[in-house]
Design a protein that fits this description.
The strands form 6 sheets. This protein has a 7-stranded parallel sheet, with helices on both faces. The longest helix has 16 residues. The protein has 3 domains: 61 residues, no CATH class; 107 residues, Metallo-beta-lactamase, Chain A (4-Layer Sandwich), CATH 3.60.15.10; 176 residues, Metallo-hydrolase/oxidoreductase (Rossmann fold), CATH 3.40.50. With 380 residues, it is α/β, with parallel strands linked by helices. It starts with 6 loop residues before the first strand and ends in a 12-residue tail after the last strand. 31% of the residues lie in helices and 23% in strands.
Length: 380
């Protein structure tokens, strides 16, 4: 279900057994689009993109409508500084007063001014309730900025004369923009997988920035391609890069590969290089195991690793992360406390955190309400 947000494949009762629900055949039923309300402007390019689907199944699309015209209550939206472009905070005017929800936010990224604007305007509403995230509560405090990440990763790139691989979250487009600048300054071409190219090409419908001329697209070796891959290969034929071309001139490229892209090294066959890890730390045992696997792959291909290393701790091999290679997409504990005090709400409601008690202990001057599963919170 998480993959059917924008549109869904219709289900039907199985003809062989009425107890079974199955997906209707693509030739018999199109995808059913959902109606979306958008806060802000919707240009013609976005509307056209919304009506297309790079799959064999047809799309029965619905409209994107301005939220202001469709909702019968007053609301405000505020774009924020976050690792994902388009992160937005909302404020809703209710009979009990304004309720503000931060969503995911930070104030140490390239667009910190957006968060500061939100804090100022949300405070001017004199909100009754502030619903605030707390993702980083309880985690080690690191205040690296995106500018710091740029300088650190650029230094690592300039030190390498062979292949460079950059590993960061596939939807952290601010980090991709950072590495686009690093590749340019290092005299290399940035190479992305087809999936990332598809999203980047679509993003220009929103921010009107065409990133594709500055990129090459990795042409992975596979027998069958998804429809979106075929579309990207047709639209950007001249920008496709074969693994053999990378092997011939590894010093010319900076590859954007994650853990799951390591298999491509078997086709490129690099002799050596540098791997720059520029993403979040491991937060569970499964992620620790992935780092061990990643480390073994990198040692096999004689890569220098920047951003983390494996160390022995209490008889276990664990990843240890280096400062300066990653800036979190979330506000630190100190940032969150400052944001609460500047907005100055009547009630603080922490969400998306493993340590909601932090707000109770550090905001004694406020009424902090902790959500409980299945229980309503009444606001008078």
């Amino acid at each position: 279900m998480e993959s059917e947000v924008a549109y869904a494949a219709p289900r039907k009762v199985s003809e062989e057994d009425a107890r079974i629900i199955e997906t209707a055949h693509y030739r018999k039923a199109p995808y059913t689009g959902r109606e979306f309300l958008i806060a802000g402007e919707c240009n013609g390019d976005l509307k056209n993109y919304w009506c297309t689907c790079p799959q064999s199944r047809e799309l029965q699309h619905k409209e994107i409508k301005p939220a202001e015209d469709e909702l019968d209550f007053e609301f405000k939206s505020f774009e924020l500084d976050h690792s994902i472009y388009g992160a937005t905070a909302y404020a809703i005017n209710t009979s009990a007063g304004w309720i503000v929800y931060t969503g995911d936010l930070r104030s140490h990224g390239r667009f910190r001014d957006k968060t500061e604007r939100f804090v100022k305007e949300a405070g001017s509403l004199d909100p009754e309730v502030l619903i605030i995230e707390g993702t980083r509560i309880g985690r080690q405090e690191k205040e690296e900025s995106e500018e710091e990440v740029y300088k650190t990763c650029l230094g690592a790139a300039l030190d390498e004369k062979d292949l460079i691989i950059a590993d960061f979250s596939p939807r952290n487009f601010e980090r991709l923009d950072t590495f686009m600048g690093i590749a340019k300054e290092a005299g290399r071409k940035l190479v992305v997988p087809a999936k990332d190219a598809y999203v980047l090409d679509a993003m220009k419908c929103v921010d009107s920035r065409d990133r594709m001329p500055d990129l090459l697209i990795y042409k992975d070796l596979k027998a069958r391609r998804d429809a979106y891959e075929k579309q990207i290969h047709e639209d950007f034929t001249e920008q496709l890069l074969d693994p053999e071309d990378i092997a011939k001139a590894p010093e010319s490229y900076l590859l954007c590969f994650s853990f799951w892209g390591m298999k491509h090294l078997l086709d490129i066959k690099p002799v050596r290089g540098t791997y720059i890890y520029s993403s979040s730390e491991a937060y569970n045992e499964e992620q620790v195991i992935d780092f061990r696997r990643l480390w073994n792959w990198l040692q096999f291909f004689n890569f220098k690793v920047r951003g983390f290393k494996m160390v022995e701790k209490e008889g276990k091999e664990l990843p240890e992360f280096e400062k300066g290679y990653h800036a979190s997409g979330h506000a630190s504990a100190g940032e969150l406390l400052r944001i609460v005090r500047e907005i100055d709400p009547g009630i603080v409601l922490p969400v998306h955190t493993e340590h909601p008690e932090f707000f109770v202990e550090n905001l004694k001057e406020y009424q902090v309400v902790l959500a409980e599963e299945g229980k309503r919170i009444e606001i008078n």
